[in-house]
Write a structure and sequence with these properties.
By secondary structure, the protein is mostly helical. The protein is globular and about 30 Å long. The chain has one domain. The chain starts with a helix and ends with a helix.
């Protein structure tokens, strides 16, 4: 996603055992948070759906 959005997105990836992840109740091996909001699994697992989701968040309401 960083390749597609460049400087428009600050992407951080953490393992479930990381200190950052300990603040959250991780529900599955693939858990994605965007601005503190859980991303549905079907979106998180799809490149195109995730792109559309993030693009929408960056464009705002």
């Amino acid at each position: 996603m960083k390749d597609r959005f460049g400087d428009r997105i600050d992407l951080q990836i953490h393992l479930t055992s990381s200190e950052e992840a300990m603040k959250y109740r991780i529900r599955s091996a693939t858990s994605v948070l965007a601005d503190g909001e859980w991303v549905p699994l079907d979106i998180a697992l799809s490149d195109e759906k995730m792109y559309a989701f993030l693009d929408g968040k960056l464009k705002g309401p």
